[in-house]
Structure formats: C-alpha cells, structure tokens
Amino acid sequence: GTGVNGDPLFVDKIGHIADQGTLDGELQAGSPAINQGENIQAIIEAMGLPWTDINGNPRDSSPDIGAYESEYSAGVDDDLLGYPSKYALSQNYPNPFNPSTTIRFSIPASSLVTLKVYDVLGNEVATLVSEKKPVGSYEVKFSATGGSASGGDVYNLPSGIYFYRLQANDFAQVKKMILLK
Q1: Has this prediction a pTM greater than 0.85?
Q2: How many CA atoms lie within 13 A of 68 on its CB side?
Q3: Which of 21, 24, 77, 137 is most buried, by CB atoms within 10 Å?
Q4: Cα(101)–Cα(97) distance, rounded to whole angstroms?
C-alpha cells in the first residue's frame, strides 16, 4: 500500500550475522523505502518517549518503512504500544481460583464485545462485558461470590468447572476455569 515494491536497499543484511555483530536495518541513501512509513510521532510522544532515534538524534516526521532502530528486535510489538495485532483471549489467573480471578483479552479493531461466564451445563452465569470497546487490551475481574466487577447479578457459585466466552466481531473463543472452595 505504500508503493514500495522493490528491494529496500539495506546497508547490511538483516538479522544477526556473526561478523556484523548486531542486528542492522539501516537503509542506503537511494532506498525506495525512505519516507514511505506512517507518521507515528504522536504515538511515540503519547507514550512519554522522546521523538529521537536510538542515538538521540531528532527524527523527521516520515519514518522509513521496513527500517528499524533497535539493537534487539527487528520490529516493534504492537501490543507494547497498546495496539494489539490480533484478537486474543487469555487463560484466567489464578486458575483454579477462589473467590475471584482475572480474565484478559485483546481486540485489534473497535468491536462490540461480550464476555460471558457459563456453568458446565451451558447456563449463563454472568455477563462481564457487553459493550462496544476501542482497540486495546483489557482485563476484567470475576468473583464467584457477589457478582462481577461490572455489576452483574449477586450470586454465590459452587465449586466446579466454568467456561468464559469472548465474542468480538467475527471472533469467538471459549476457555475453561475452575472454582475451588
């Protein structure tokens, strides 16, 4: 989508090479990838980081596409910036739990999200989330005594196996959790 369809012309090979000593992603002067990236200055500054490269030099406002400036990684993990790259539902923790547990999930696009808890017979026990959420990573507390953190019905669940289900756009996933009293 950027019009860069050729060799980006890196100065050195990408990856760790013994005689090179480090990862390198510097572009040659005539690279077609120069000034083809998105302007991420607002994201970087919102994180409280300086708008400089790893050597402290000021950046311009059009980062090079495909290039990176890190001694450790060939890219930036979107999750570190608060922008997950895929839908994900994590295993609750602790598991087994008593009386409460935490459930984490991530959504890469604004979505109508529902997160519900079911008993082993498939009966809905609690609705933890039922709203449109922006892109991001979330965590929800669930208590087996007294309801959910989001104000669910008051109840006192017995020990047993329960399931929680995340639905967001076309994504759906179920995980199992165990309540031990």
Answers
A1: no
A2: 15
A3: 24
A4: 6
- Chain centroid to Cα 168, Å, comes to 14
Token pair 């302007």 is found at 39
CB neighbourhood size of 82 (10 A): 13
Q: Is 149 helix (H, G, I), strand (E, B) or coil?
A: coil
What phi and psi, each to the nearest 5 degrees, are found at residue 42? -60, -40
DSSP helix/strand/coil, 57: coil
Distances (CA, A) of 158 to 65, 79, 97, 143: 54, 36, 12, 12
pLDDT digits (tens, 9 = 90+) for 29-87: 676 666 666 666 666 666 666 777 656 677 665 555 544 443 334 444 444 455 778 89
Residues sharing a CB contact under 8 Å with residue 40, sequence separation 6 or more, in sequence order: 63
Within a 10 A sphere around the Cβ of 177, how many other Cβ atoms?
21
Look at the chain and count its residues. 181
Q: Chain centroid to CA 146: how far? A: 30
Nearest to 177 by CA among 113, 106, 100: 100
pLDDT digit string, tens, across residues 140-149: 999 888 654 4
**Selection from 87, 49, 88 nearest residue 69 by Cα:** 49
